[in-house]
Design goal:
The protein has five helices and no strands. By secondary structure, it is mainly α. The radius of gyration is 17 Å and the shape is globular.
Length: 116
């Protein structure tokens, strides 16, 4: 059996961590993203993904849901791809297309007063 390269080992470790974050919603998003994208991430992108895995769940959830701004150090192409993947995952896994899934950010409706 051939020895694994450093990047292959890092990808396997990242997949394991992505599937076991703690919050079920993040396990689903990160795990599915890792399954689909880890093999094509280059070394720099993998480093960025590993950094995202180190962010506490509650904080990551706030960023993904748009409740808190993403710090510049984490606001990069890998995070953007993760968020886009989550949106696609939400759209494809929602049993009712018109109903948002638990992974969708809340809809904020502005109050409009009608003058009579």
């Amino acid at each position: 059996m051939a020895e694994l390269t450093d990047i292959q080992i890092r990808r396997k470790q990242a997949l394991f961590r992505a599937q076991r974050r703690g919050f079920k919603e993040l396990d689903l998003v990160f795990g599915a993203f890792a399954d689909a994208h880890l093999e094509i991430l280059d070394e720099d992108e993998l480093t960025r993904f590993e950094a995202l895995l180190s962010v506490p769940d509650w904080q990551m959830m706030d960023w993904i849901m748009g409740h808190q701004p993403v710090p510049a150090a984490y606001d990069h192409a890998v995070f953007a791809r993760l968020c886009a993947y989550r949106r696609n995952l939400s759209a494809n896994t929602s049993p009712h297309a018109e109903e948002p899934s638990r992974l969708d950010p809340p809809i904020r409706r502005g109050s409009t007063a009608s003058s009579g």
